[in-house]
Amino acid sequence: MGTSQALKAGRRERPWPASGSRFLGSRVSPRSSSCGICTHRTLPFDELVQRAAEEKHKEFFISEDEKYYLRSLGEDPRKDVADIRKQFPLLEADIKFPNFFKKEQFFSSVFRISSSGLQLWTHYDVMDNFLIQVTGKKRAVLFSPRDAQYLYLSGTKSEVLNIDNPDLAKYPLFSKARRYECSLKAGDVLFIPALWFHNVISEEFGVGVNVFWKHLPSECYDKTDTYGNKDPTAASRAAQILDRALKTLDELPEEYKDFYARRMVLHIQDKAYSKNFE
Q1: CA distance 43 to 196
Q2: Crossing angle of the two packed helices 233-249 and 254-272, in degrees rounded to 10
Q3: What are the residues facing 135 on neighbouring strands?
Q4: What is the radius of gyration, based on Cα positions, of the chain?
Q5: pTM for the full model?
Q6: Fewer Cβ atoms within 10 Å of its own Cβ: the N or the C terminal residue of the chain?
């Protein structure tokens, strides 16, 4: 892809398509091996769309082939979820959410714009969602939650950035992960189940909408989560307990720590792994 930069947009000040609309955003390197570059910019909405649609830029921040990405946010991203009907009211009549969940289960609807060639890293969300492709083409690659052990996770994301040509010397287990691949064109809708890892590449300049809904009881979710990607509260508590248990093992000599850590893994497999997925 060459230099791959993305502009991630925040809240609007005026509803699209007013030509004066402006977005607060940042540019990052989604394929960088480290944290990449992250700065903030404000661009008029029409300029953002124009840049995202260009293959080469006469005006740019870092390079002529940088990529742009918009992900809509709530009015206050710390408290409000994205809802295309609120942030982009002129588009409300054009969006019909698939009738697969009850009204009270709705969580968010995220408006997205992507440059051609932009890739979003492999990650999972904790809610079921639909990816609705409005214009352009995308390629989506999914991995089962049962293959998490092969994806080299760092939080909710995989460390393997180049899934088509992975560094198997560094990530040897990645070859065991089974990939499910599909192509989306304008008008297509992809159902992405909760916890399923997905990696999305824009093959053309495109516009899309994600619709997330709560398929678990509301009390299962973190009330501070405005993106739909914080682990359920019970899972977060369990992870904290496990971290404390592992820290306790540090009191033992290395061979004892290794032995009892392996016993803990076997105990977790016996008590917590679902027999339905074997």
Answers
A1: 34
A2: 150
A3: 207
A4: 21
A5: 0.83
A6: C
